[in-house]
Specification:
about 240 residues, alpha+beta, 5-stranded antiparallel beta sheet, globular
Length: about 240
């Protein structure tokens, strides 16, 4: 499934993601069906993409289409449909149409973030797109905040109010401390995005679950005057005899 996050502050927008893809398969033996989880794992999947200098795209959900990694399809979509003049507001409908053209329709989600030209200058935009659910949501970004998708349980449990169940069936609330989104600088946003991916990876490592979040963390920062990769895995390959 993987984990993706966008943190948006006044200075800019951050997109971050892990790099792990875990493939499963199903086989039949007579009347029995066997579901095999984690039959192949790679930590080299790109899930965050720079579409142009004002638009970033992160993805989670289905890792492949017709047995081929989805990364190539996303890169192909960017080449065919996004230029330096493309406005971010056109991307959600466009990417939805592109991926709904496959049969079956992939269960893939996107966070699309960046800047749009407006009368008052450049305006922040953050969209969430759920292709299989046929849903496009434009987030309210007048304040500062964050949104995430994929394997969301770990981070959500950490930052949401929690309580412990008592023997009598009642609940005792733990102290809850809010995340001061409104005080974040862009550097804080970058740090939180990395923390969110890292804590998900480290928590799943020590749980009895399929570790489908892992590998290098890619972090993209988008400012009104351009985009910058804060962290980006490279195609450095060491060949051994």
């Amino acid at each position: 499934m993987s984990f993706i996050i966008s943190v948006f502050v006044n200075e800019g927008i951050v997109l971050a993601s892990d790099s792990r893809t875990t493939y499963n398969n199903t086989r039949k033996n007579g009347l029995e069906t066997f579901h095999n989880y984690g039959v192949y794992t790679t930590d080299s999947t790109d899930r965050t993409f720079l579409a142009n200098q004002r638009i970033g795209i992160s993805t989670c959900g289905d890792a492949s289409i017709a047995g081929i990694p989805i990364t190539g399809y996303i890169e192909n979509y960017i080449r065919q449909h996004i230029s330096e003049k493309t406005d971010i507001n056109a991307v959600p409908e466009s990417i939805m149409k592109y991926f709904k053209g496959f049969s079956p329709v992939p269960n893939v989600n996107f966070i699309i973030a960046g800047y749009s030209k407006a009368d008052s200058g450049l305006e922040q935009m953050v969209y969430k797109v759920r292709v299989a659910g046929d849903k496009i949501e434009r987030l309210e970004v007048k304040g500062q905040g964050a949104t995430w998708d994929g394997e969301t349980i770990t981070l959500t449990k950490i930052i949401q109010p929690t309580a412990i169940k008592k023997p009598d069936g009642g609940y005792s609330d733990f102290p809850h401390f809010e995340i001061p989104w409104g005080l974040f600088t862009l550097k804080d946003a970058i740090g939180f995005a990395k923390y969110a991916v890292d804590i998900t990876i480290q928590t799943m490592r020590y749980q009895l679950v399929v570790e489908n979040v892992g590998g290098p963390v890619d972090i993209l920062a988008i400012k009104p005057d351009g985009a910058l990769w804060i962290q980006k895995k490279l195609l450095n390959i060491v060949l051994r005899d």
